[in-house]
Write a structure and sequence with these properties.
This protein has helices spanning 3-16, 23-26, 30-48, 59-102, 106-131, 160-163, 200-220, 224-243, 247-261, 267-283, 289-311, 322-325, 333-367, 374-394, 403-422, 432-455, and strands at residues 136-140, 150-156, 173-176. By secondary structure, the chain is mainly α. The N and C termini lie far apart (54 Å).
């Protein structure tokens, strides 16, 4: 397949930002080149007949969502904002289309899953090393190089005040743990990565939702090597989720593990989930005054988002405009989509997530008791578990336009096309009943959030 090398390189660049560490590469159009390589490889695979020209079910929702994003931008900012949003939205939309339509076999799907596992565990290893580094004075460099603005000067510290001793006038320091690849902790030791995963909560979520791929590989064929891979994955993911101090990551970890292991309720499954979840529940997350303040800030952001929806219920205030009206992001994807794209945009976004769930849930029901369909059954379970983790994340983080999340949205579409190669009768449609269900859920959810906020006096 000619698509996979370019697509893998594209995802590596998005998640690691390694090309930004080189002065030479920073001056080159690395990302546009990788998009062109991946797209060109996809077109070549179509031309050679390696891939079939069949669309996954979510495409009928993703393309209208993209068009509606541009309509919202035009209604709020005119042609200039539309031009900007075409460039910004194409990044994650193209990733979705390429991933969903280039993995039309279970072999290709497995390669992508193992790549995502390897890539995410690499980020986890970086954070793991970071957690054991001593606190040092980190100079905030006064330059405009994105995601590469910090460096340690080697001085040990306990508080930022220690770093101001003998400092040059005008220099600004933080006291954090430095890590590989120019990474640092944040918030007095919370581990994280850089770029699109510089938020500790998003790094914790990314680590949690990739775990089902390791468990699926072991379930498909048991061997010592695969058992060691699963053990290694948990040995990296669990402590790093704890060290991010992310309550969202903590909940997502428990939900993902439970969703994969508890396909059929049994005391063995419950015991295994309890053993794996106990450390995250007892040691993960934050508490105290800072945690309470963070929770209050998020609730206030939800209030602001609901008010934005009231001010423009049809097309919202425009993608990317939430932070123009409020000092933090919405910290809730449903609120963010409703505020920026209006009720129609929110319904379309939820419909994409709903359809991803529908694909894997119906596949699980169809292949549960079929010995000849063990592979699609196992991968459907894994994808369902990852999506359950994403649902947790979307309730506490702003993930509506996150490239990694759109990659996971695309995987059920790829799974659908791979499954239809072996079972042409497997079909998923998004009909009027589905639309009414999603619309009803969206409205009830918004009303529920409003009632909850009022109960909190907000």
């Amino acid at each position: 397949m000619f698509t996979l090398p370019g697509l893998i390189a594209l995802l590596v660049a998005h998640c690691t930002k390694v090309h930004e560490m080189s002065t030479l590469l920073r001056a080159l159009p690395v990302m546009p080149t990788l998009y062109l390589l991946a797209t060109g490889g996809f077109l070549l695979d179509l031309r050679l007949g390696v891939l079939h020209a069949e669309a996954c079910p979510q495409v009928r929702l993703v393309l209208p969502l993209w068009l509606w994003t541009l309509v919202s931008a035009g209604m709020n900012g005119g042609f200039g904002m539309v031009t900007r949003e075409i460039n910004l939205t194409l990044s994650y939309m193209l990733i979705f289309l390429l991933v969903a339509h280039s993995l039309q076999s279970f072999r290709a799907l497995r390669i992508m899953a193992m790549f995502l596992l390897t890539l995410t565990l690499f980020l986890g290893i970086v954070a793991f090393i970071q957690a054991f580094s001593p606190f040092q004075c980190i100079l905030l460099a006064a330059n405009d190089i994105p995601d590469f603005r910090t460096r340690s000067d080697g001085r040990a510290c306990e508080t930022p005040a220690d770093c101001r001793v003998n400092a040059e006038p005008g220099e600004e320091y933080i006291c954090e743990r430095p890590g590989p690849l120019g990474t640092t902790t944040i918030g007095e030791g919370r581990v994280r990565y850089r770029g699109i995963l510089e938020d500790p909560n998003e790094l914790a979520l990314a680590l949690a939702i990739v775990l089902p791929f390791a468990m699926a590989a072991l379930s498909q064929r048991r061997s010592l090597v695969r058992l060691l891979i699963v053990a290694f994955a948990f040995a990296i993911v669990l402590p790093v989720v704890i060290w991010t101090q992310s309550r969202t990551g903590q909940i997502a970890f428990v939900v993902v593990v439970a969703a994969f292991l508890l396909n059929k309720i049994s005391w063995k499954g419950l015991l295994m989930v309890a053993v794996l979840a106990a450390p995250a529940l007892m040691l993960g997350g934050r508490s105290g005054e800072s945690a309470d303040e963070s929770s209050l800030e998020r609730l206030e952001a939800w209030v602001t988002g609901i008010n934005m929806l009231k001010s423009s219920p049809l097309w919202g205030i425009g993608k990317g405009q939430f932070s123009e009206y409020y000092y933090i992001t919405a910290h809730n994807t449903f609120v963010l989509e409703a505020a920026e794209l209006g009720l129609i945009g929110m319904i379309l976004w939820v419909s994409v997530l709903y359809t991803a769930f529908k694909i894997v849930i119906l596949a699980i029901r169809r292949y549960r008791d079929r010995a000849d369909a063990r592979v699609p059954y196992i991968w459907a379970r894994a994808l369902r578990a990852s999506l359950c983790g994403i649902v947790v994340g979307t309730n506490f983080l702003s993930l509506g336009y996150h490239p990694l999340i759109w990659t996971y949205f695309a995987l059920p579409g790829a799974f659908y096309l791979a499954t239809r190669r072996h079972d042409p009768e497997f079909r998923i449609v998004f009909g009027m009943r589905d639309l009414l269900s999603v619309s009803g859920f969206s409205i009830v959810w918004l009303i529920g959030v409003k009632i909850y906020l009022m109960s909190k006096g907000l």
